[in-house]
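Continuing the series of single-chain predictions for the mutant panel. This is the parent chain; the variants come on the following pages.
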Amino acid sequence: MAESARQYEVISVSLPRDLVERVNEIVPKTRRSRIIRDLLSSFVESVSRRRVAEEYAAYYTRRTAGEVEEERSLLAEWEISDAEAWALLEREESRGRRATR
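Parent structure:
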């Protein structure tokens, strides 16, 4: 199966001189581009996670009292289910069965 061709876009990023000098001192030259790529990827992912968190916060502030109560009711039901599941696991472990991985 042929892999789809990757497309790249060249970007230019300006970094503070102190940061560049520090990176040049501690990161081997052969790994700098990979480290920069990983750092930029991590930054983009963190921005995405923050945006999702903000959207969730906005959603939760707009909910009606009825929706809030319904969710609390569901969470209370799940709490009982969680307790039952933990009890089953503890009972299996006490019988000498291996815990699941």
